[in-house]
Amino acid sequence: MIPAPAWPAGGRAAPGRAAPGGPGLRRRLESGEIAVTAEIGPPRGADPDAIRRKTAPLRGWVDAVNITDNQSAFVRLSNWAGSLLALAAGVEPVMQLTCRDRNRIALQSDLLSAAALGVPNVLLMTGDHPRFGDHPEAKPVFDIDSVQLLWTARTMRDEGRLMSGRRLDPPPQWLIGAVENPAAPPARFRAARLGKKVEAGAEFVQTQFVFDVAAFAQWMTEVRDLGLDQRCRVLAGVGPIRSLRALEHMSANVPGVHVPDEIARRLRRVPADQVADEGLRICVEIILQVLQVPGVRGIHVMAPGFEQGIPEILSQAGIRQREPAVPAALAPDGSGPAAGPSGPGSGHAH
Amino acid sequence: MNPLRDITWAARRPGGHASGAAAWPRPRQPRLAASLLYRIQRLLMPGPFYRRLAGWLEVSTRRYGIFTATEKAAKGAIFGCRMCGQCTLPVTGYACPMTCPKQLRNGPCGGVGIDGSCEVYPGMRCVWLVAYERADQQGRVADLRRLQRPIDHRLRGQSSWVNYWQGRDDGLWTEGDDLAAPGIWRPAPPATTAGGP
User: What does the alpha-carbon distance between residue A23 and residue B3 come to, in Å, rounded to a whole number?
Assistant: First the structure.
């Protein structure tokens, strides 16, 4: 039996402790307004304040922040601890969870734990292989794949059962997200692959960096043809390339990312001290373009090491500040900038 | 300097972990054309004959061992088979997804290079890209859309042909829109409800 798709009705109860009062990612997506998420890499170190420092400038600007799971197979503070620290800092987390380091027992356990800790969103993916991380000698687990993990999560939530069939009481509640890379070969199978993830349980998807908007739009056409945009909200992945070194790194070391020649040329043409500005401009242009593509419901901003610059990018793209997802009262000592809510519930790009 | 690193540095030498170990899966181009393999598959369809053969093999450890070793040699040479014991080749364009370094059963990861190279072994072609092209050429892309259930690691080393003829891998992947709970595939008894209580 296929449980009813989560989206069309929009009547699903919000997860218990998540996002009291604020819109939250789920409600933003249900509202049909532009949703904005941003990526936060947890620290390499035991600094409990690092997540707060990175998320503070984003409060009021994004609906949720992705807390990565040892991204690129480099060891960092864990995804669930980072998510908890984000909640404490007053920002709703999307907990990324990869199949790289955990077998099916650990994955299901972590999913339950996330729900019990009040993490309202999970993003389930295969994960980068350890070979290019800081422990290439590690054993890659990959017990199940991303589609199977999505399927498992959906079964845990909607049927209240583990893979083993054992009952969960009470079942966990989270919004289930997936990732896709529209630019990676085989281009003609990428929409179908998202289809598999949607069938398995994905309710929203964040894409890898979009640099080739035409290719992305073509993928979205296929996504719409398959009716997937009605069952799964699409957030386009964007981010600035702020230096020529970042450009090289992006092309050479980030799996599945290809920067088209046209963008590389634009970055190389300007004087060295203006590359960062040009990269920002390109990013803003891409945001404006992807938001014009029918079926796109928001953006996911990836700017590692430049989180403080995300509000500037958003405002240049005409995306205004919105209500913080979690009231500031939840943040211990209420630190972080006063998130001046301008235009409550708005956030449309112009 | 770092005692932990001193233990592991040897594995980082070129030719060590990077290219020497046969233990980790690597993408593999099948040696036979998909069209031929789909024809061969029709000859191997489960039926009374093969069921009896499978039963006859299974009653003797020696017979089963010889047969399984033959299967391993043949499928190893053609597909880079790693003997997962639950073969999915008929619905993956006869390219083996267990040779994917991440052992993905449901399609390519997002790390495939623009030139079609594997994320983990950049000099090699993504096995799922190969699977897609072979399936596409044979009009079998719909096969790739099926959801593959998680594999049962207890079956490693078993003969997947015997399991196939005995009907034990029914339900390894979904048919059409039938999305049951993703219970693990239980080899016996076949009537076990996936994910049921």
Answer: 50
If you count them, how many residues does chain A have? 350
Mean pLDDT of A11-40: 72
3-state helix, strand and coil shares in percent for chain B, rounded to the nearest 5: 40, 0, 55
CB contact under 8 A, B150 and A161: no
Taking a C-beta distance cutoff of 8 angstroms, is the pair B165, B50 a contact? yes
Nearest CA in chain A to B113: A256
Q: From chain A, pick out residues whose CB is under 8 angstroms from the CB of B103.
A: 142, 145
pTM: 0.87
Nearest 5°: CA angle at A239, between A272 and A313?
85
- Cβ of A255 within 8 Å of Cβ of B111? The answer is yes
pLDDT of res. A344 = 35
Contact A163 B195 (CB under 8 A): yes
Q: Do A140 and B113 touch (CB under 8 A)?
A: no
3-state SS assignment for residue A68: coil
Rounded to whole angstroms, the Cα distance separating B81 from B72 reads 7
Structure tokens at A123: 């993003």
Angle between helices A190-200 and A146-158 (to 10 degrees): 30
- Residue given tokens 């088209």 in the structure block: A260
Domain spans in chain A, listed from the N-terminal domain onward: 24-332
Q: Best of A100, A151, A210 to disrupt the B interface by mutation (most B CBs within 10 Å)? A: A151
CB A300 within 8 A of CB A209: no
Instruction: Classify B96 as helix, strand or coil.
Output: coil
* Cα separation, B132 vs B106, whole angstroms: 11
How many CB contacts within 8 angstroms connect chain A with chain B? 148
Q: Which two tokens stand for residue B197?
A: 């209580």
Q: Which of A137, A183, A186 sits opposite B17 (nearest CB)?
A: A137
Q: With an 8 Å Cβ cutoff, are A2 and B196 in contact?
A: no
What CATH architecture is A24-332?
A: Alpha-Beta Barrel (3.20)
- The Cα B133–Cα B139 span in angstroms is 10
Q: Please, are residues A286 and A314 in contact by the beta-carbon 8 Å criterion? A: no
**Which SS3 state, helix, strand or coil, does residue A229 take?**
helix
Identify the pLDDT of residue B124. 96
Tell me how many degrees the CA angle B141-A208-A27 measures, rounded to the nearest 5: 100
Q: What is the CA radius of gyration of chain B?
A: 19
Convert the pLDDT of each residue in B134-177 to its tens digit. Answer: 999 999 999 999 999 999 999 999 999 999 999 988 888 887 65
Half-sphere exposure of A255 (CA within 13 A, CB side): 24
